[in-house]
Structures are given as structure tokens and as C-alpha cells.
């Protein structure tokens, strides 16, 4: 991310403020979701429920299966991460379960993780950016993210798939 090291104890208060007034950059570009925000604004938004997240996806090629994570993206407080969860989950359901033997297991794991809102990497990222003490302080005061109706819809759909499959199989069996 930023090339500057986490805030050492030798920095003055002005050095810390200068550091916090920088944008969060990855290879010279803002981290997705943080455009126009400084580290201080991101820290403040995290206190209100903003989170850095990674979503899982997987794919299979006959006897090989691979599970990957998306790039890190910031979801501001009040912003839904559900559409990203839907996209990565549907992609994995289409191209994931076909590998033997791990494809189906990776796909189920991917669906589970994405239904929970992906992997929250906020604490790890803050730890590397702000140092362990400040990161722990921010995370201990941070609100939990708000309820995401799009994620709940994904959970309902995923949980209803086995029921729909069982009904379909029982209907197909009764027509014989």
C-alpha cells in the first residue's frame, strides 16, 4: 500500500497528521472504494462501520481446482457489499464445482464465506498502515457494519438451493 512506514514513536504530532492526510494508495492508485479519502477519513469511516473486504472465488479444470481471493476493496459505512458477494458466488457456482475432488468443496466454502460478507481484512490492513496500537484502538471503537439486505437475499437463495433440488428430484421421480 503506501510506501510510508507505520507511525513510529519518534514522529511528532505534525508528522502523524501529515501521514493521516495522505490518500491510501496501492501502486500509485487509490485502493478501490477509497477514492477522494485520506487515511484520517478512512479511519473515521471505519469507526462508523466501513470495512475493507476480500471475496472468494474458485474455478476448476477437470482434476485441478483453484480458490482465489478478489483484490481488497473498501466498502464505506452504509454501502452494500452484497452485489460483489453475488457476483463472485455466481461465478464460482458456474465454473467452480467441476474439478475432482476439490471443486465442490471449494465452491461450498466460497459460497459460505461470501454469504458472510467476504473476508474482513480491516484489522490487518490498519495494523500495517497505522501500527498495532492505533489499529487496535480504532477496531475496538468501531461499530459493526450495518445489516446488508442484499447479503441476506444471497443467503436465502443459497440456503433454498438444496430444498429446490430435492423438490425437483422428487418431482422427476414421481413422473416415472
A few lines on this structure:
The protein has 176 residues and is α+β, with helices and mostly antiparallel strands. The protein has helices at residues 13-20, 39-47, 82-95, 103-115, 122-130, 132-141, 149-174; strands at residues 25-26, 29-30, 51-54, 56-61, 64-69, 73-75, 119-120. The model has no long low-confidence stretch (mean pLDDT 92).
Overall, the morphology is elongated
| Class derived from helix and strand content | alpha+beta
Task: Please tally the helical runs, counting DSSP H or I stretches of 4 or more residues.
Answer: 7
Order of helices and strands: HEEHEEEEHHEHHH
Question: Spatial order of the strands in the main sheet?
Answer: 6-3-7
Percentage of residues in strands: 5-15%
Task: Provide key terms for this protein.
alpha+beta; 7 helices; 176 residues; two-stranded antiparallel ribbon; three-stranded antiparallel beta sheet
Word description of this protein:
The termini are far apart. Helix 5 packs across helix 6 (132-141). This protein has 176 residues and is of the alpha+beta class. It contains seven helices and seven strands, in the order H-E-E-H-E-E-E-E-H-H-E-H-H-H.
Amino acid at each position: 500500500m503506501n510506501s510510508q512506514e507505520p507511525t513510529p514513536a519518534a514522529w511528532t504530532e505534525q508528522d502523524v497528521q501529515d501521514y493521516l492526510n495522505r490518500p491510501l494508495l496501492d501502486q500509485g492508485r487509490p485502493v478501490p472504494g477509497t477514492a477522494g479519502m485520506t487515511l484520517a477519513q478512512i479511519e473515521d469511516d471505519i469507526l462508523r462501520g466501513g470495512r475493507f473486504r476480500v471475496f472468494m472465488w474458485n474455478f476448476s479444470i477437470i482434476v485441478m481446482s483453484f480458490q482465489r481471493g478478489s483484490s481488497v476493496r473498501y466498502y464505506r459505512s452504509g454501502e452494500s457489499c452484497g452485489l460483489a458477494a453475488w457476483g463472485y458466488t455466481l461465478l464460482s457456482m458456474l465454473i467452480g464445482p467441476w474439478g475432482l475432488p476439490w471443486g465442490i468443496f471449494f465452491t461450498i466454502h466460497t459460497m459460505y464465506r461470501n454469504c458472510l460478507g467476504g473476508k474482513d481484512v480491516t484489522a490487518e490492513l490498519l495494523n500495517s498502515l497505522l501500527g498495532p496500537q492505533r489499529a487496535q484502538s480504532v477496531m475496538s471503537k468501531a461499530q459493526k457494519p450495518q445489516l446488508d439486505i442484499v447479503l441476506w437475499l444471497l443467503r436465502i437463495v443459497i440456503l433454498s438451493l438444496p430444498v429446490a433440488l430435492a423438490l425437483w428430484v422428487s418431482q422427476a421421480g414421481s413422473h416415472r
